[in-house]
Amino acid sequence: MWFVKTTVLKDQCPVQVENIPTEHDLSLLEQDTSVSQNAVLLTSLEHHSGRKNILQRSALGVHSKDHCENLSFCMVKGCWLLLVGVILSCRIPGIRWKLRRNRKNEPAPLQPVAQQLQLLLQQKQHQQAQSPAKGAGKWRKKLLVIFVLLGILTSFWLFWHLNQKIILRREETLANMCDERARMLQDQFNVSMNHVNALAILVSTFHHGKHPSAINQKTFGEYTERTAFERPLTSGVAYALKVLHSEREQFEKQHGWTIKKMETEDQTLVQDCLTENLDPAPIKDEYAPVIFSQETVSHIVSIDMMSGKEDRENILRARATGKGVLTSPFKLLKSNNLGVVLTFAVYNKDLPPDATPDQRIEATVGYLGASYDVPSLVKKLLHQLASKQTIVVNVYDTTNASAPISMYGTDVTDTGLLHVSNLDFGDPLRKHEMHCRFKQKPPLPWTAINASLGVLVITLLVGHIFLAAISRIAKVENDYREMMELKARAEAADVAKSQFLATVSHEIRTPMNGVLGMLKMLMDTDLDAIQRDYAETAHASGKDLISLINEVLDQAKIESGKLELEDVPFDLRSLLDNVLSLSSDKSNGKGIELAVYVSDRVPEVVVGDPGRFRQIITNLVGNSIKFTQDKGHIFVSVHLVDEVKGAFDVGDKVLQQGLNLVQDMSSRTYNTLSGFPVVDRWKSWENFKVLNGKDTTEDPEKIKLLVTVEDTGVGIRLDAQARIFTPFVQADSSTSRHYGGTGIGLSISKHLVELMHGEIGFVSESGVGSTFSFTGAFGKGEASSLDPKWKQYDPAVSEFQGLGALVIDNRSIRAEVTRYHLRRLGISVDITSSIESACTYLSSTCGTSAFAHLALILIDKDVWNQETILQLRSLLKEHRQNGRLDVSTHVPKIFLLATSMSPAERSKLKTAGFVDNVLMKPLRLSVLIACFQEALGNGGKDQIQRKKTSTLGTLLRDKRILVVDDNKVNRRVAEGALKKCGAIVSCVERGRDALDKLKPPHNFDACFMDLQMPEMDGFEATRQIRSAESEVNKKIASGETSIEIYGNVSHWHIPILAMTADVIQATNEECMKCGMDDYVSKPFEEEKLYSTVARFFKSG
């Protein structure tokens, strides 16, 4: 560049213009040449044009204001006329109806009393059916609606109109201020440019036009310093001579120094650089060494300006055009401001106005350049202006429109309006713009708001007055009919609410009893790794169900439809593990294989309501277990909806096989989890809107999950499928008797799915099974936002990172499920379909890294064979003896995967050395961690201090108690809680069994009776027990039977305590009526249990 510069800066931010009142005086700028006079003339013309535009805008604003006022007056006048019309229309029909009614009330001829009564009833019915007042009320309301709508529309229009006027005035003010500053900046720059051009003419006249030259460095330096006031915005000027290569040697001898070159083409010269340290300019056809310079830039004398790339381009363009040429903005060293360099070519003779570029190049003898401090120029300009409203000004070089360079200003703050004024600095190839914004955002349009709100309030007040009058008339006529309807509705709602409350309370508190009861049992034992999993599952479920119960009970006590979902991050995979943990006992007891699989594309953390999501899964899995007999499977899978939208481009292997895209024809069994046939799961979601492109509520920030629960149960008959989601309705009347339940689970699930903006559907085939699918919208969460309860296994997972595992399973979909669980631990997995192929795999990979990292071998029970297992173990030992396996490396541990197996069988296999451990399905993270830690030698136990013996022990010690409950978990909880207190507990699962046990004589001291049981509930069982006791007592009292036959007990009455999950008073009262002595609420609480039992047993 001509002058000192550093790196080019882009996108600098605007400086706020201060309101400093100074005189607007341009007379200080001298007009030395004809070019400057033309510039001033052009400026005056532009200023006049801008003033004319301002006047036109002002006239337009006044016209629009008058038009607005006239239109507003017309609108207000129209509203008042409409109001008067509504009043008259309301009064006239009322007067007509009153006259007609008086005419009808004239005395009629005497008739019999019965006929008069009948006629009166007919008249009343006729008046109620065809009341003119009712008809008049309808069209009055229509007129009232029209009036209110017109008033609302008028208020909106008035706000929009006044707001547009305010915005227009603000835009005009900003445009005028910005255009004025742009014109003044352009004028001052043009005047300064003319002075530089005049200096170029002076050099041409007195240096090249006189021989010898009348200018030397001293003369040039003194003159430029003394005339610097004419160029107050330049940091320096310099003159470079055009030197051809043939003239170089003579030139250097004449001046006594060598032409130097810049260090690089883009060199940034510094003010204290030494020219003697620069290298001589390389050989070129032409040079442009600086021979004269102002003292402020004297350090650039002898430097060849043609050696810089950008300088050379500017010089060539300046001499070809004969006009001033500007550079791109750069930083000036002295002021550290952004500036530009103006270059003029100096000619040795006068050129005609129409000289060609070749003639100009031929006549060129040198180049005069001046640097401009643009920020100082703009600041000076802005200080000359005073404004009532502060604005922010930015000046940009927009030659490159895609990357404009900020020449003046600071960071841009968007305040709503922006005005752009073009700047012409004389160089047609460089474009500049001035951007202006208000310093502050516009205030609220209070004028428009107040005016529109005033019209709206008046409209609503008038409408309210008339609506009250019309409604009052209609209310008097309809009070009786509405009162009777409300009475019937209230009675029906009261009955339904009571049924709903009783059912929901029992159905939700029943699993609560299992959760908290199991937790108490485990807290009284030494917890190993497996027990820790039970305790954590029970604790988490207990906390969730406590809040769930409160919400369900509150919902049943108040109006429905006000349920809201949470939005919290949770670990979807851990939640599904907890659900499987709760259902594992039932599935294993029936020999049903229970499994879960989550696609890799599903995020680890999602945002939603984990409690409600768990409730849906628990309901569906519970139904599947209930209606699935021996054998078979229940498979829960989770995928993204996007994965199933393209059925022919499915990447997930489990989904492929589930959609029958991959068929296993290697055996006669079906390629399913258990080998049993299943229904086509695609039909369960084929009508979902989200899959058919009909869902208009899609949120790009949400993900849609598709959850499928597949079972091989009894299926649902075709005629019962239409009512499957109806509350309190099951497939047929015998379902409740055979399987239990109330039929509310699916209804609740459907409601929750709809709250999640999803859909639920199913496909079922009698004798094959059912598949339920539902979708839900969830947010994407971050692992860092998870609650610590979801991260409890994170430290243990790191222990297995990098290990390898071999899964041996003849069902590919089941092997993929096992792979899914192992990959959650960071374990790489390979799959083989038989033990023979596993031996082949081990032989082929021996000595590789995969074999070196192999730590686990998991074998499904379906491919288990004792002989082949021995062959596998001998193969592993052989590899170790042959040195293929490092002695320090552990032999891979072998695990057997089983759905149902007795503890004795498991112990036998481990003792015989066939396997290192047996993993019971369903697989879940906590069980895998515990078993692998134990097998690999890095597991441990957390000892938990046992609770002190409860005071209940003094009451229940050695007491024989019968527990009657159809729920296995509840029986275990009740048994454990009572045994902990020293009681001798017996359990039965049906009411009929309780009748046999409690038939006198018996040795039980008390009975805990569940209420909701299939076949015979607790109420009926208690009535029959009391009936049997009453008959025996009568026989003993009458002497008909000897007392010795009945154990020397003269009066039989066993305390029967109801175990109820219902907390409503109606249930408790019914317990007392059927003969029960008291009730204990589920789940058991020690204090309440003690206070109840103390009534029947003495301490000690």
TrEMBL record:
Residue ranges constituting the Histidine kinase domain according to the UniProt record: 503-780
Chain positions with 4-aspartylphosphate modification: 860, 1010
Location relative to the cell: Endoplasmic reticulum membrane
Membrane association type: Multi-pass membrane protein
Keywords: Kinase, Membrane, Phosphoprotein, Transferase, Transmembrane, Transmembrane helix
CHASE domain boundaries: 211-435
Domain of life the protein comes from: Eukaryota
Enzyme class of the recorded protein, top EC level: transferase
EC number: 2.7.13.3
Transmembrane domains' residue ranges: 70-94, 143-160
Example GO biological process: regulation of shoot system development
Domain Response regulatory: 804-936, 960-1097
Gene Ontology CC terms: endoplasmic reticulum membrane; nucleus
Protein name, UniProt field: histidine kinase
The species this protein was found in: Durio zibethinus (Durian)
